[in-house]
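Why do we bother with a discrete structure alphabet at all? Because it lets us treat a fold like text: something you can write down, compare, and reason about line by line. To make this less abstract, here is a complete entry for Superoxide dismutase. Read it the way you would read a sentence in a foreign language you are learning: slowly, and without expecting to understand everything at once.
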Amino acid sequence: MPLELPRLPYDRAALQPHLSAETLDLHHGKHFRGYLDTVNARIEGTELAELPLEEIVRQTQGSLFDAAAQAWNHQFYFQCLHPRAGGDPQGRLGELVTRHFGDAKRLREAFDRAALTLFGSGWVWLVQHSNGALAIQVTRNAGTPLTGESTPLLACDVWEHAYYTDYQNERARYLEAFWKLVNWDFVTAQLRD
């Protein structure tokens, strides 16, 4: 069964003025769709065709892994955003952020530092290690925490297509906008028990 492009969890214009409908059309409608089309073409008629995307990521390598991981990363990223979001994490997540970073401001500073120093394209993640500790992880290109031991909680796409239309080469301005859209409820739901 072919993998289908999931609908955005909000209207394509809902993240404005932080991310434009044009950016979401390009990012979701073109790039994400392209990765899924590539995966579907490569898995058709194989035992992988019956697996969920997450398992395809875990079981493949090379160019199929690249397309599958990019598709999964994008799917996760879009869920990390919401038009009525932002602010600071609350509850259990807020307590963990305080324990491991000092406070939400320090988390954002460390996350931004990682995003701004990543040369080229990739992803910045807030992850939870198996011991419960929170950490920031950077993956290059199609890399994803799914292939390791850590649980992804929050993703920020720092490929240029994620922000060029709205912010040109100003990744720092994109990050400012990103924090206004972070869906902390989704992030909290990813925590290990």
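What the structure line is telling us, in plain words: DSSP finds eight helices and three strands in the chain. The first strand starts at residue 122 and ends at 128.
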